[in-house]
């Protein structure tokens, strides 16, 4: 057979957990329950439910482009991951054990980040006081919003902007390593700054800005080297831990 006529071979993917958990299909199956809970939670809580900022910005962008269907954003999120997996031409199956491992890995990473936050604020930044005393309705709405942050902030700042930033820097001939580092730093700065934008944004403080920048760096590294699903799960689990700790 002529060499050019041979079909392209499917890229090999390792059978170990670290390789399998990075795949877009694993990320899709892992993040899908969080996406469903978030979207259904908003519907159940009604029009006054607190919507995640990244979710709101992405929907506004779609509306400006003339696409205002309510479920378009979650459909696009799923479509991006399916398309990404299709381009990689990897098998359309994931072992159930991989999801157990991803859950455990995300929980350990989230607890570690939460403990770092707690130590930082308890011993180094004592001036910051947590907000307590949320009602049940507001608490549930806040937790649902936190799940949305895990999905849509990772979609916006990591899957879209980080890849875009690395691509632009590479196009500017910054070099492979410099492009990755530059993309991580720039998107982490944007990620941190976004928490102080809009009527629902927090009051700006250099302490919280610096911590959120560090968290953004962590999520970017996780996305880059552990996959979208691990970044989403760690982000969502961490947010929920923060919500539970401020409720206590």
Write the layout of secondary structure elements.
Layout: H1 17-20, H2 24-45, H3 53-64, H4 72-88, H5 96-124, H6 136-171, H7 176-194, H8 206-226, H9 228-247
Helix pairs in contact: 2-4, 2-6, 2-9, 3-6, 5-9, 6-7, 6-8, 6-9, 7-8, 8-9
Structural write-up:
The chain is mainly α. The chain is built from nine helices and no strands. Helix 2 packs antiparallel against helix 6 and helix 5 crosses helix 9.
What is shown here, in short?
This protein is mainly alpha-helical.
Element order, helices and strands?
HHHHHHHHH
Uncertain runs with pLDDT below 50, 5 residues or more?
1-10, 127-134
What portion of residues is helical? Answer: over 70%
Give the tally of β-strands. 0
Number of helices: 9
Largest sheet: none
Total number of domains: 1
Q: State the separation between the terminal residues, measured CA to CA.
A: 69 Å
Mean pLDDT: 85
Content of β-strand: under 5%
Based on Cα principal axes, name the global outline: globular
Compute the gyration radius: what is it?
Answer: 19 Å
Class computed from helices, strands and strand pairing:
mainly alpha
């Amino acid at each position: 057979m002529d060499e050019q006529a041979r079909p392209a071979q499917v890229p090999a993917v390792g059978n170990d957990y670290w390789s399998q958990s990075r795949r877009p299909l694993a990320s899709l199956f892992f993040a899908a329950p969080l996406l469903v809970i978030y979207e259904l939670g908003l519907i159940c809580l009604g029009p006054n439910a607190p919507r995640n900022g990244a979710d709101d910005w992405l929907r506004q962008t779609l509306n400006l482009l003339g696409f205002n269907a309510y479920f378009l954003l979650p459909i696009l999120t799923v479509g991006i991951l399916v398309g990404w997996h299709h381009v990689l031409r990897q098998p359309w199956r994931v072992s159930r054990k991989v999801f157990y491992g991803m859950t455990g890995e995300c929980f350990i990473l989230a607890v570690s980040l939460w403990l770092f936050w707690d130590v930082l604020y308890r011993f180094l930044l004592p001036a910051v006081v947590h907000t307590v005393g949320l009602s049940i309705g507001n608490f549930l709405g806040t937790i649902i919003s936190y799940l949305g942050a895990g999905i849509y902030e990772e979609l916006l700042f990591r899957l879209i902007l980080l890849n875009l930033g690395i691509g632009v820097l590479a196009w500017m001939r910054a070099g492979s390593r410099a492009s990755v580092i530059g993309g991580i730093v720039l998107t982490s700065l944007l990620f941190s700054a976004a928490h102080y934008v809009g009527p629902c944004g927090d009051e700006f403080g250099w302490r919280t800005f610096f911590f959120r920048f560090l968290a953004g760096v962590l999520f970017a590294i996780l996305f880059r080297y552990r996959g979208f699903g691990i970044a989403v799960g760690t982000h969502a689990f961490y947010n929920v831990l923060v919500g539970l700790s401020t409720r206590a």
